[in-house]
Each structure stands twice: as C-alpha cells, then as structure tokens.
Design brief:
The structure holds 2 protein chains of 2 kinds. Chain A is built from 8 helices and 21 strands. Helix content of chain A is 20%, strand content 36%. Chain A has a 6-stranded mixed beta sheet with strand order 7-8-9-3-10-11, sandwiched between helices. A 5-stranded antiparallel beta sheet of chain A has the order 2-1-4-5-6, with helices on one face. A 5-stranded antiparallel beta sheet of chain A has the order 14-13-12-15-21. Chain B has 10 helices and no strands. The longest helix of chain B has 34 residues. Chains A and B meet through strand 7 and helix 2 of A and helix 6 and helix 7 of B. Chain B: InterPro entries: MetI-like, MetI-like_sf, ModB_ABC.
Chain lengths: 381, 232
Amino acid sequence: MTLEVAISHRIGAFRLEAEFRVAGGVTALFGHSGAGKSTVVNAISGLLRPDSGRIVAGGEVLYDAAKGIDVPPHRRRVGYVFQDARLFPHMTVARNLSYGAWFGRSRGAGRDRDLIVDLLGIGPLLQRQPRTLSGGEKSRVALARAILAGPRLLLMDEPLAALDAARKAEILPYLERLRDDLHLPIIYVSHSVAEVTRLATSIVLLDGGRVVASGPAEAILADPAIAPTFGQREIGTILPATVAAQEEDGLTRLATPGGPVWVPGVPDRPGAAVRLRIMAQDVMIAQTRPEGISALNVLAAEVSDIRLGDGPGALVQLNVGGSPILSRITRRSAVALGLAPGKQVHAVLKAVSVARDSVGHSVPVEGPQGGKGTNTPGFPP
Amino acid sequence: MVDWLTADEWRAVALSLRVSLWAAVVGLPFGIFVAYALARWSFRGKALLNGIVHLPLILPPVVTGYLLLLTLGRTAPVGRFLDDWFGLVFAFRWTGAALAAGIMAFPLMVRAIRLAIEAVDPGLEDAARTLGAPGPVVFLTVTLPLILPGIVAGAILAFAKAMGEFGATITFVSNIPGQTQTIPSAIYSFLQVPGGDASALRLVAVSVTIAMAALLASEWLSKRIARRIGRA
C-alpha cells in the first residue's frame, strides 16, 4: 500500500505545506512540537479538512480538494491511535474492542481478535472498565481497538508521549511485534529519536510545516546534514544485522555489512534479523586497526562525508560495507587524522544496542543469557 | 379516590402531573437537539437561536403566554392552520397548558443537557468516527450514553419547572377546573374564595412533596447512571 500526501493548510499564522509518499512499513513523522505532525495525521484520518491538496491511500482518493472529494473519516479505513487512548469510558475493554470490529465485520475485521489480544497481552483486561487501567494498558487496548477495526493504514499520534519511561519500555516491544507480524502500514508521529530509531523503516522529517527530508530510516538518520536536527546527543544510526551464532561465553555474533559485531546474548535464532542502534558519540575513529584495546567491535570503514558543526564538533559519515554510520568527534581530531572523503579508517564501536527487526519469529535460545528481553543494553567498551 | 383531597383538588393534581410529564417528555428530543446544536455546531444565527431558547427565562411569563395566545389562539393564523390540518387545538385545553409549561421549562432543560454535552470529550467522538461509525451512530453509541445523567437532570428540572408554571399557563389557557386548572392555578383560585385556605394548603403540601420526590429521584438516577457509564 502506498500513501501519497500533498496538502496545504493554514491555521492562524501557521502554514503547513506537506508533500510525501510512503510505502508500507513504519513511517516516522518526525519533528519538533509545532512542526505540523498532528495536522498531517488528522488530515489523513479525515478529522481535519486541509485547505487544498490531495490524499491517496492504496489507490483510493481519500481527499482531493480540486475534485471535491472528501471521504468521511468512518469510510476511510484509516485507524488512529491517539496519544490519550480515548477509550469509551462507558464500555468494558471487550466492548471497546468490538466497537470498531463491528463496523468492519463485512470485510472480516475482528477475525484475528484472539491473535491481537494475545499479541498485545490484554487478555486479562477484557472485562475491566477503562478507568481502572494503567496508562500502558490503556495504550495497548487503544492499539488493539484500532487494529481490530480492520484499517488499511494505522496512524499513531505519539502513542507513548503520555507514558513514563518504564511504560514506554513496556509498550515498545509490542509495537515492534505489530510492525513485524501484521504487515500493516503505520504512520508513527513522534518527537523521540529513540522511538524513531527503534521502530521506523522510513522517516519523514517535518520542520515549520514543511517536509525537509524523507526517505529510508537508515539513510535519513545517517545523513550528516540532517542528523543534527535530531539533537546532538540523540544522533545515531541503524545498522542492519543478522544473528550469526551464539558463542560459548554468552556473546552473540552478528553479521553486519561491515563485518562481525559481538554483543551480549541476543535471544534470537541464527538467521534472525536485528537492527543495531549505534550512537554517533559511541563511535571512535582510528587510522590503523587498533591493537590492545578492550573494544571488541572494530569495523573497517571509509570516510564518506564530513560536516563541521558550529562548535568544536564534527560529524563524520563512515561507510561500513555499504551501510552508513555516523561518528561524532572533535573538529581537532578530524584535522589531526586528516579525515577526508575516501580515506580508509577503522570505526571503533564503544557501545551498540540491539532492537529486533522485521523477522517475526523470535525464540529465546538456550544459553547463559538466553531468555532475556529483545532489547539488550549497550555493550560496554 | 383519595379522601384527603377533594375531587377538584385531585383533578388539579392529576392535571398538573399530566401536563408536566408531557411538557418534559415531548420537550426532550427537541431539547437534546437544540443543546447539541448549541454545544457542537457552529452556524449562522447560533446567537439568535440561543437567545430565542432563553427568552422564556427572561420575559415575564404573562408575555410568553400572551404571545402563545396571539400565535396559537383559535382565531390566530397558526392556531387555525393546526386545527384545520391536524385537529390540534391548544387554546383553553390541557394540551395548551402542556405547551406553555414546556416552553417555559425548555431553557432549563437545554442548559442542563448542553452542559453535559460540553463535558463529553469530542475526542471520543472523533475516535468513534475513525473506528468506522457514521455520525448518527457515534451520537447514539457514544455521546448519548455519556450525557444520560445530564438528560435525566434536564428532564426532571423541566418537569419541576412545569409543575410550578403559572403565568404563561393562565394567560394562554385560562383557569378552567378539570381542563386547564393546574396546581398553581388551583391554589390561586382557592385563595380568591373565602374558606379556600385549607384546600390551598393541601395543594401546597402536595406541591412540596412532588418537588422533593423529583429532586431525590434525579439525584438517585444520576448517580446510578454515572456508575454504570464508568464516570463515578
């Protein structure tokens, strides 16, 4: 399914001019507060009518100002998970879930009810009233309710923003499972780089009502010209990897485009795809392959781009076996090492964190650290 | 029937109950519609509609009654039209008393329901729409259940107001025992004749009892509904 959005809308002094096109996967609509993210998703859902433009989902025109087409929200089949859950307070969880499924019953919505209930772990909540649920439980129920209405596209407007860190950590694995198991295209509004890096397959970057960049998540996150908009401390890239082997000392060997990377026990079978999140500040650059250091993960790399910041810092884009990663070093080091595009160097990864990727079947392995969660902490230097 | 009330007094009580019940029940759908329009829609003439709805609250009741007589009286054009085409006669009938009471009670009913509608998060209605519910279904399955306490409160308030209506009723439909003589008109009449004090007092007692019962019923119902819809 592809979604094409080209809309303009004016609210007071704010002017939104958004144009982008996404196909499947999780598309993060990223931007700071007031960038126009919510306006875009409201327009896609039909809750807001843009001044002009066109919205097409899966070949069906949902909105076309020029042709006077405006499909009402209840016929768009666009699911919407709101930040504040919006469960119906006068219905039990079970009836909340049935609500959307009932309207979509003719096209088989609600058929996978047991599966979804299981996937989101809300079985024990079905007879409860929404007001007795915790924030995290409400989010999961809202998610299940939206999915059970049988949408062709799911919008999520900062579904985790109202939750504390512990609740976020509780929900994120469920979102990853949804992405990997349901093949439902998702537009995910967020201003959290960590969430975006963990979930997004592509990114649309909004700033001041305009799309400033869009494309595959790996490329956008690793573009030294764009990365600083995510915030200096949040700059990080995604490196795709597959589980190669579980080794005897509890480490898992991962195969990446740039060579092997070892991390503490990832509980997935060999062959499973994972995504490595590598923060720019955790990548050191060495001219020669360093000897006698504790860091295990050293990848051969080629400098592909350098961007000097306003301050004493510099962002270096390194090509490791065809995949870009970023390193944040000082300007002084960049000069001292004589870094320039084309130069062969070594990237020393001080820390790597692992998130599960688009292969569905995660099975804990037997081993010293088997059965841990899918998100392992950063690897110590 | 009940020997502590005379036949005339009893007729006034029964008529008052009938008039007030009709005023509240028939007014309810209109009240809900107008309250919803005022709470949720923006349209030209909204301020005017709001003004007209509230007019009976501000105008002297006699004026409202007289205006009704001017429009719906036997010889007035609208009154004659309704009589000719629908056989509906309001002037000097109990139906007229119900209409007058309903109109006088309408603003109170609308206010109570409008407050309840404004307390419902429109986000819930939006959520229902994105789940596939067309507008009228959203109203019936989400908005209506959530505003039920407000509707009950509005209806009972309207009922109580109708029970006490006097000025507009007596102007529009006069004070005919058994036809249009409600409790207030009856009390008024009894006070005009020597020795009527006892009758008037008995009706006052009945009035107080009914008003109190209505208030208690309203409290109890609202609490019960609030619990059921998960608001308590």
